[in-house]
Amino acid sequence: MNRRSFVTTMATAAVAAGAASGRAMASVESGNRVPLARVLPKGLRPGSTVGIVCPASAASTGDIADFVALCREWGVRVKLGKNVSRRNGYLSAPDQDRASEFMEFIEDPEVDAVICARGGYGVMRILPMLDFEAIRQAGKIIMGFSDITALLIAAHQLSGVVTFHGPVASSTFDSFTVQSLQGVILPENAPPLTTFTNSRLTVIGEGKAQGRLTGGNLALVVSTLGTKFEIDTADSILFLEEVNEEPFRVDRMLTQLWLAGKLQAAKAVALGNFRDCEARGTSISGPSLSLQQVFEQRLASLGVPVVYGLPFGHVKSKLTLPLGVNAELDATARTFRVLEQAVV
Questions:
Q1: CA 158/CA 20 separation, integer angstroms
Q2: Are residues 125 and 213 in the same domain?
Q3: In this model, does residue 344 exceed pLDDT 90?
Q4: How many CA atoms lie within 13 A of 65 on its CB side?
């Protein structure tokens, strides 16, 4: 089969992807079946090639210039997708074009990693058009955050490939971000496995737990509930972050996860900084709860370790977190550790 032709129409793509992803998701959802074997992607090395794609909103070549320069420092080549610098309203390009661009780089033997240029909005629209069996066979790094959360979770759960919640190509690459990124995706020059500790982390629930990492942007995690792409939180360290949402909206999204049983299934919850999510005056019907009060009311009763304030997602200095590898959250000691290498 010529996979490059599978996105000729949205309907054809949805049928093809639905058949492949349905089988994979059944293995995740059914307690009587064995989940997909985990696939560790090949790490970046000098001479590798990174493909930059726009599966959601638009980004220009100027937006990604810092990341391109960083790749050159590493001796890594860069290949730009056909949708970089395009714009179609709040999307980079029509759905079919964005799906095609992504799959072309997945199937391109010269491309070793696929890095998303920007989040924004649009990934959910192309999920039914992706070939998850091809993603599994390629076994490549896929990285981004924000709207890219939906892609990372779907690709990991329906292909078995470890994916990476980390900077997009238009992010700011300060020393903290670069050090974390190198430690996760550049195996030959990697420092010890990621460990982050900070006495200023807010503890919502005491204790220590280990589990596989999964999560991302809260709104995107909630938006896929009830679909074949919804998050599996069983036995996980669930990490969640958000930006520019009022406390009552954060409350509503966490409550939806609780009603769906997703919070109760996790072994621990690691919360990001939730930048600009405190109340901006009065709430919908009067004074607002603080964000910490929301977390305490929605998460403390879970009886698992919960911390608030980890640096990932919508912050300048961010950790790169691999979905599908084991990690440990010690809330009492305010320490988070990745326990396994995420690439080979």
A1: 8
A2: no
A3: yes
A4: 4
Per-residue DSSP letters for 3-65? GGGTTSSHHHHHHHHHHHHHHHHHHHH-TTSPPPPPBPPPPP-TT-EEEEE-SSS---TTTTH
Residues 30 and 110 in one domain: yes
Amino acid 283: pLDDT: 64
Nearest CA to 97 out of 138, 67, 55, 69 is that of: 55
The string of pLDDT tens digits covering residues 55-69 is: 999 999 999 999 999
For 252, the token pair is 């509503």
Show the DSSP H helices in the chain as ranges.
Answer: 10-29, 65-73, 95-107, 123-126, 132-138, 149-159, 175-185, 218-223, 247-259, 262-265, 291-299
Range of the domain at 317: 195-338
Strand, coil or helix: 143 = strand
Beta bridge partners of 270: 239, 307
Query: How are beta strands 163-165 and 141-144 bridged, if at all?
Result: parallel
Inside any domain, residue 313: yes
Q: What is the pLDDT of residue 287?
A: 86
Residues designated catalytic? 146, 241, 314
Q: Binning pLDDT at 50, 70 and 90, where does residue 4 land?
A: very low
Residue 176 lies in a domain: yes
**CA 68 to chain CA mean position, Å:** 21
Q: What pLDDT digit, counting tens, does each position of 158-170 carry?
A: 999 999 999 999 9
- CA-CA distance, 97 to 123, in Å (whole number)? 12
Give every CB contact of residue 217 below 8 A, 6+ residues apart in sequence: 119, 145, 146, 147, 149, 240, 241, 242, 313, 314
pLDDT for 5 beyond 50 = no
Same domain, 51 and 159: yes
- The pLDDT value recorded for residue 191 is 61
**110 and 232 belong to one structural domain:** no
